[in-house]
Amino acid sequence: MAVLALGFTSIIAQTIVLREFLCVFSGNELVIGIVLANWMILTGAGAFLGKFTDRITGRLTSLTVLLGVGAIVPLVTIFLLRSLRNLIFPIGSLIGIGESFYGSFVLLMPWCLVAGALFTLLARIVSEAQQANRVAEVYSLESAGSVIGGICFNTVIVFFLSTFQALILLGLLNLAVCLVLSSKHARRLGVYVATALIFLLVIVAVAFNLDDITRGFMFRDQSLLFQKDTPYGNLTVTKQGEQISFFENSVLLFSSNDVPTNEEAVHYAMVQHHEPKAVLIVSGDIAGMAGEVLKYGVTQVDFVEINPWLIEVQKRFASAPIDPRIHFVIEDARRYLRHASTQYDVVLL
Question: What is the distance between the alpha carbons of residues 141 and 148, in angstroms, rounded to a whole number?
Fold first, then answer.
């Protein structure tokens, strides 16, 4: 059970942490590579250090302690990642390769060392219990847990749970394993500690919206109107004065009432056609851009966006124009253009 839980929680925690680094560091594929490299290095180091854990205390005690620590550390990691971003680095700056490397290395270290040590410790416990080398079987069980975790994340968690809700759920799972192991082996202190931590996580989940609190740290001096982790990235909507800004993975997409930007994005292209009728807008500020496009007497405006949540927040906060000529298409733009039957006069990217 503990091995399956390790695989289940590790893959989900890895996915969530990787997503958070992409968001907080405004990253791309290079940041993914840096984070994964550090993850593998540190987990390998943890696996090596795991063989020394039984020298400090008993193996069962080491196992329950590591599981308990592993239940809390991912929550602390994400909290620190969001709260320290604008304290360590200048607000609005792009984080470089070096900063991405050492920042992810330091923040990943606690959880990766614990996860690596847990695998080594579990392999030793199972092998000694069966008096045979069972590393392969332990690895298979851990991989099975990872597969189950990956399926759960992609089909349920990514759609219905926020970052901290998912991490608290993982923490409760690990603590439940601690509770079962402590009860089974009559470790009263372990039972008390695991029970207390379970109640603590439940109270935190009910009393505090950690997602909004920590996201607010990243947008200082702005009012947080909306934030959501979507399968396509984190969407955040803030308000400062009378201006509403839309961010995806902490990168500014557009702001309301930004007339000069909308005019530049639309008119330079529109005036190239003598009588535009059908216009395609690929993502962007539908409220501002569509308003400018409609000035040309067009008959059709198709707005293509792969992320349906981005369309919803624009309708909610940006007063997207209600006009029968505007049609929303939720699809990848490249795929849409391959089968689109409409011949567009102007395409705005």
Answer: 11
The C-alpha angle 84, 168, 49, rounded to 5 degrees, equals 75
186 CB contacts (<8 Å, ≥6 apart)? Answer: none
- Find the mean pLDDT for residues 43-58: 78
Task: Kindly indicate the confidence band of residue 186, based on its pLDDT and cuts at 50, 70 and 90.
Answer: low
Right CATH number for 256-348 from 3.40.50.1010, 3.40.50.150, 3.20.20.70, 3.40.50.300?
3.40.50.150
Amino acid (1-letter code) at residue 277: K
- Mean pLDDT value of segment 123-141: 81
Query: What is the average pLDDT across 308-331?
Result: 87
Q: Measured between alpha carbons, how far is 181 from 38 in angstroms, rounded to an integer?
A: 31
Token duo for residue 1:
């059970």
pTM of the model: 0.84
- Give the tokens for residue 68: 């308990």
Q: Find, among 63, 207, 37, the residue nearest to 122 by Cα.
A: 63
CATH architecture classification, 2-218: Up-down Bundle (1.20)
